[in-house]
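Hi U.,

Before I forget, here's the chain from the pilot set. I'm dumping it here mostly so it's searchable later in email.
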Amino acid sequence: MCNEKRTTGDKRKFLIDCDTGTDDAIAIIAALYAKEIDVQAITTVTGNVSVKYTSENTLNLTRYLGSDIPVSVGAWGPLKLHSEMCYAEETHGKAGLGTVQLPKSADRFDREKAPALIYRKAAEAEGQLEILAIGPLTNIAIALLLYPSLKKSIKHLWVMGGAVYGGNVTPTAEFNFWCDPEAARLVLKSGIPCTLVGLDVTTKAVLTKDDIKGMKALGTRAGKVVADILEFMAKRHEAGGEDLLMHDALALAAALCPSCLKCKDYYVDVECEGAYTYGHAEVDVWGETGRQANASVAVDINVPQFRKWLYETIAESKE
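Structure:
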């Protein structure tokens, strides 16, 4: 699925489901300026920070860039409540965008809650809606529970989540799946065509200080926001934190620049009970389960091509 060729024609209809932190914001910016797609709506979820901040970040970002795309507030916590919320403030800052402060929008969030909006947009798209899911999968899981027919109305899911080998929250679990493994399991078992872009490739999607200079040189609002976020990431890395990793933008690249990634079809499940493996994406690499593949899993990346694609996409911004 990762390497399938796309035919030309009308723009593809996308919905973004996100927990807007630093790299989420860059993915959203790229999606807004990508020529191939029309972003129908953005739904927010608790993840990197609380849904209060992920929602405000999303609304402020889209409005600052001149977009009136509907932004809908989603789940404040996982399907199954845990002893503590799964924030990543040490990576994204207390409010999610590091040191970047956007003008506060006076607009309101969409009246529909995220699951209802996902269902409506899928119905309106008549089977052509694709979802870029770059946070915990809680909203999509709730939508599937509330509207069972939804699984037949979504064309494809492009998911940043999981890993074939290792994790970044525990030795076995990646953050988005660890935050809500029950939701991830439900979504993966839904039968919706799915591409998983996990840590095996996203930890290689590293930008550099040259990319910061390139974004600044664009002279646009979008370029400046991306450069400011990347500068925060660079300082974070110098202090011993995560590098300039484009986890979420790479999931968008899987959809729009298939040659950036190499994928293989596997059966994938998610561990929801293990004391040491909770949230682990169980990728059946060797076919031991005998089950049919339910996801196309990214296993390798062409980093120079990805960096080129990301720059050229954001360079479509004109103001």
